[in-house]
Amino acid sequence: MCIRDSYQSVGMSYQGQNALKDISFEVDFGQCVAFVGKSGSGKTTAVSLLPRFYEFQQGTISIDGTDIRDLRLEDLRRLISYVTQDTFLFHDTIYENIRYGRPDATAKEIERAAEHAHCDEFIRTRPEGMQTRIGDRGVQLSGGERQRIAIARAFLKAAPILILDEATSSLDSHSESVVQGALDLLMQGRTTLLVAHRFSTVMGSDRILVFEKGVVKEAGTHSELLSKTGVYTGLYQQQYSSLI
User: Quick check: 87 and 154 in contact, CB under 8 A?
Assistant: First the structure.
């Protein structure tokens, strides 16, 4: 399935405040478009409009030429996998938590998804394996392990559109490396919208959109944006100067 997303002059407001104003961009099949900007700049709001977690008031958002408001909500969300920094897990087994990605999946498909997401590394350390109960909201797992279950769900669902919203932001460096490897594999052959505050995560994106106060101020590749010495350059320098 070749999926192309298009935002055309999209605007959204709530409580009398503009959250997004005149947002326009396209994402071709297999491309990764990253969203960067300060907290509250509108990047998460922008990606949340695609699965219709929020409703926009101006413009259009379409998938392969079809306005998302003309699709049944169930059909729309079947096309999208969404991985955030705060993964919701059930008080159940690892197996059942992964199966949530596609309830009709076979045991082999669930095991394969777990392997792709590198879940097998920590599953093997537990005597009950996939049947290990993980506690309320996955309290018995580390942050990296919880994220890998979320990624396994996305592998199992196999949706053509992938939204990654700060999926590695709360992880330590080791966990981030493992999770990022799983995400890189998951992104292959999918249309990806990537929200991240770490520039190391977005550098390789096909295009980067720089948000500021609900507006796309700049757009381009990492190297193109650095050459402009604009908003992106300022954010980049601020992040890396803080590491010195």
Answer: no
Residue type, 112: R
Tell me the H-state helices in the chain: 43-48, 73-78, 94-99, 107-116, 120-123, 143-157, 173-187, 199-202, 222-228, 231-241
| Count of helix runs (H) and strand runs (E) in the chain | 10, 10
- DSSP 3-state of 24: strand
48-58: pLDDT as tens digits: 999 999 999 99
Closest CA to 179 of 206, 159, 198: 198
CA atoms within 13 A on the CB side of 133: 4
Residue 208 neighbours by CB distance under 10 Å: 23
Low-confidence ranges of the chain (pLDDT < 70): 1-2, 241-244
Q: What global pTM score does this model have?
A: 0.91
Rg (CA), the chain: 18
Task: Pick the closest to residue 156 from 193, 216, 104, 191 (CA basis).
Answer: 104
Other CB atoms within a 10 A radius of the CB of residue 1 amount to: 12
Cα(207)–Cα(190) distance, integer angstroms: 15
Structure token digits, residue 237 = 């320098």
Structure tokens at 183: 């995400």
Rounded Cα–Cα distance for residues 153 and 217 (Å) = 34
Please state, in angstroms and rounded to a whole number, the distance separating the CA atoms of residues 244 and 118: 32
Handedness of CA 60, 64, 69, 73 (dihedral sign): negative
